């Protein structure tokens, strides 16, 4: 088993592993291609779009929602014309847009609302008219949550 220090990614370990060098070179190439493609996409749509691949004249991008995907499809000729300005994408003839929703979304924080005096009064009034004992207790407890 290797030591923990041997497993760290250092410039020396990258030079010793040709597979890792190849992987890093491909990642950099993909990142440069993505920058070119995203620059060609209208600014209002860029947030939800990612470059996937380009094979055999087919440029594939992914969109977070169907709305963004349909807007991209509507403007595909404009996007392809802008992308073709770069030598890397000179022979693009088709734009394929796939919908791939974001994996993680942060849920908005929920805030408890303050019960107004008017609503508390209405709850107490309703509790007074209710014949069910359990419901009356619940309504009175809710009415007591008012902040002054």
Automatic annotation (TrEMBL):
Entry-linked Pfam families: DciA (PF05258)
InterPro entries: DciA-like
Record's protein name: DUF721 domain-containing protein
Originating organism: Marinobacter profundi
């Amino acid at each position: 088993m290797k030591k923990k220090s041997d497993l760290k990614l250092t410039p020396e370990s990258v030079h010793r592993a040709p597979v890792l060098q190849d992987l890093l070179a491909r990642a950099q190439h993909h990142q440069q291609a993505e920058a070119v493609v995203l620059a060609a996409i209208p600014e209002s749509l860029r947030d939800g779009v990612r470059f996937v691949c380009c094979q055999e004249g087919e440029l594939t991008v992914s969109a977070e929602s169907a709305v963004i995907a349909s807007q991209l499809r509507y403007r595909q000729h404009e996007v392809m014309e802008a992308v073709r300005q770069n030598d890397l994408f000179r022979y693009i003839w088709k734009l394929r847009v796939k919908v791939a929703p974001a994996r993680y979304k942060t849920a908005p924080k929920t805030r408890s609302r303050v019960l107004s005096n008017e609503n508390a009064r209405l709850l107490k009034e309703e509790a007074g008219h209710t014949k069910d004992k359990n419901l009356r207790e619940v309504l009175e407890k809710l009415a007591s949550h008012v902040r002054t």
